Amino acid sequence: xxxxxxxxxxxxxxxxxxxxxxxxxxxxxxxxxxxxxxxxxxxxxxxxxxxxxxxxxxxxxxxxxxxxxxxxxxxxxxxxxxxxxxxxxxxxxxxxxxxxxxxxxxxxxxxxxxxxxxxxxxxxxxxxxxxxxxxxxxxxxxxxxxxxxxxxxxxxxxxxxxxxxxxxxxxxxxxxxxxxxxxxxxxxxxxxxxxxxxxxxxxxxxxxxxxxxxxxxx
Length: 218
Fold this sequence. Notes:
It is built from no helices and five strands. The protein has 218 residues and is low in regular secondary structure.
């Protein structure tokens, strides 16, 4: 998350306000990363306006993906729940978000790590509950305070407790019955991450699309 008014993510410096002229500008709204079955999650796409690029979040790793770490992104994807530590993805480039949480490092019904958010790292998964997504960050650029770019929660292995997505549109994670094994998608137009599924035979959920807000004096 990048902002010229309040709350640039990842502990980064406030962006310098842009000097614009009256003309047409291309605005790119990044799509959320698409959910998958049995593979690494997809990274989200970048949102771009003028010289400012807000990097899409990293996809989370999957329990069937040989223990690969979560993907790096504006905020990092969570590590899978499986035997052996699976690290969360890094926040790259720095100053936009935080890293994803590690997956549970013991055998059993492991929980995946939560995705990083704009203002906090993703929570480490436990046994058998997934980690909560890192919290997003609030900004008042629209005239009211709204929180964006929360991390998606990790899936809860064999547990029945649903991990919570980070404030700012992050989706909750999947859990065994009576929960939803698929998890929940990130909220559109927030840049929130999608929740992880409970196992490798279900699909992880889509991340929420980004948003570009331009505020100017008249």
